[in-house]
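Title: Prediction job returns without error message
Component: structure pipeline
Severity: low
Priority: P3
Assignee: unassigned

Description:
Job completed but the reporter wants confirmation the result is attached to the right record. Sequence as submitted:
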Amino acid sequence: MGKSENNKIIFNKKQKITLVALMILISASLSVMPVEGGGPSGPTLTITKLTTSGDGSFDFSVTGPTSFNPTIITSSGSGGTNALSVTAGTYSITETIPVDWNLITASCNDGSSSFSIDTVSGIVIGASDNIVCTFQNTFVGPVEPGQVTGLIATAMGTSTIDLAWTPPVDDGGSPITGYKIERESPVAAGFSILVGNTGTTATTFQDTGLTPDTEYNYRVSAINAIGTGPVSNEAFTITDPVVDWLFEFGSFGTGDGLFNNPSTIAVDSSDRIFVGDNTGRIQVFDSSGNFLFKFGTFVNIQSVTVDSSDRIIVSDISLNEIQVFDSSGNFLFKFGSFGTGDGQFSSPFGVAVDNQDRIYVGEDGNSRVQVFDSSGNFLFKFGTPCNIGAPGPECIDPDGAGPLELGDGQFDDINDLIVDGFDRLLVLETRRVQVFDTSGNFLFKFGNFATGTGGFVETSGIAVDSSNNIFIPISDTQRVQAYNSVGLFLVDFGTFGTGPGEFLSPSDVTVDNTDRILVVDGNDNSIQVFGPFTNTKGTLKITKISIGDDAFDFTVSGPTSYNPNIVTLNGNGMNGPILVEPGIYSVQETIPSGWYLNTASCNDGSSTFSVDTVSGIVIDPVDNIECTFENVPQATIKVTKLTTGGDDIFDFTVSGPTSYATSINTVAGIADGDLFDTLSLSDNNRELDSIFPNYISGFFGQQRVG
């Protein structure tokens, strides 16, 4: 600090130089600061930033009498500095162009500067100038990809649609990583996301599990690291119907080729069609639906079938008799009368024949099935009644807690019956189908009393095709349901209406020798003919047999993969049958502790078993494959060696389902061998004692083998 004399500060020469430098620095700093209150009073410089296609952060270098380095961040495409006070002179402004941006143009309003690459130079700022320089950038870095084009949708059956498209020409500067797929059904119903991101660059996709005969519409967008591009063209298609509608014939009336509430139908070996209606006659048509002839004067026709000799067998529920005609409709004989005895009937609702031409008659009134030879002679009967509408003691109560229910082999409301290609008798009731062998032994059942999928409410007909698929018309929901040969629901077809493929009240069905499906619509007085049905599914059933009970886990690998758990009861358990896609499968058991997997096999004819897995299981469409795994408890065996008079090393060989060799070295006359797991041959409590002579007296004692 300088000296003070008479309130004056006196600086020496060195202090004066320092003070001048400090004042210059302060002046330079103040020259680039906006002036508070009224704004800058001298020359000013303003930098304005404009951007397109995005916002960013931009650095500048201002060089001249007043130098500084501002940063501008744009928002909604614009940004800038305040008017900054500068010293008059010549300036240049350089932008550090960020990555992914282009500097399109830059200029100042001084009237003399020029722009090149990233710099405006030669900016002349006079003593009272307010100069504005504008820099305009556009974003050129990665953006969302362009539009997918050429989208095509192709129906590949009743439940599958294949999509294919062309990727965008422009990936937006960032590689495409996947596609977004949207779907609506039907067209204009509104799109929803089917797949948010496929996660692959593949330009094809298969949509499965769809509803037959239904319209689906699609659009696709490409995805990259920046985002999702615009949607493609829309592409729609319709899944195939379950069966193709071919034609229909008939209308209301009593003349030839006309119907009055037709109720039953059958075909013969020549695919001639036999239809019974309320006029008390059977009309015969060729396979194209052309009228041929008619016969009979029945009171109430309920069912008709044809045997291997093309004899026509008709049940009349009012007369309680079965009438038999030759292929030309000439009467041959009849049998039956009203009653409950053997060979008597009460409302014979269904009639069928097997491959030996034995005749099966299902009675609704007597709740039984009677079997006759081809001449109508009584052979045997089976079935007991259970009126589930007013259940009595004849019905069963499985757990003793109610309610009473239909037992296996009991009948309530028999509606129809048929013999399939496996020579099994299928008996249709209001609530279910029971399946028997042709001796009347119960095999299995399927269906339930419900209006939904697989449910029965109003049924009166049943048919099978050459692949033993089962068809049942449901009159209350105007559809025909299809099941596979083990009773698993596959699909249904039909809806309410009078158009092709629509029904008012489907009442009976039959299948001809070319697998065409013929459906009687009683209320529409018509017969509709559909093409063959193709079952694309197979089934897999896993059966577990065990000596004792436990829970067993399995892994099924193949086109349809799943992980069933089977708990055995009294040594038996099962999973399935399950509908699966055709292909090659393996079934692996996770063997529980304490168990040994003795054997496993499948009935496909080609699979092999090793350790814990059956592999190479071939399941084709319509196949019903069963795999059986048999387990037994795992036991242990231990060899104990006792010696007298000394110690030594003793070698043993154990032979059996589990064979091994062991050595025992006794100490003080005793030693235990190792504990070995082995296969139990019986139960877990059997002990076997054996005496082995040795040079030194001793014995081999207590082997536990189960």
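Comment from assignee: result matches the submitted record. The chain is about 5% helix and 50% strand.
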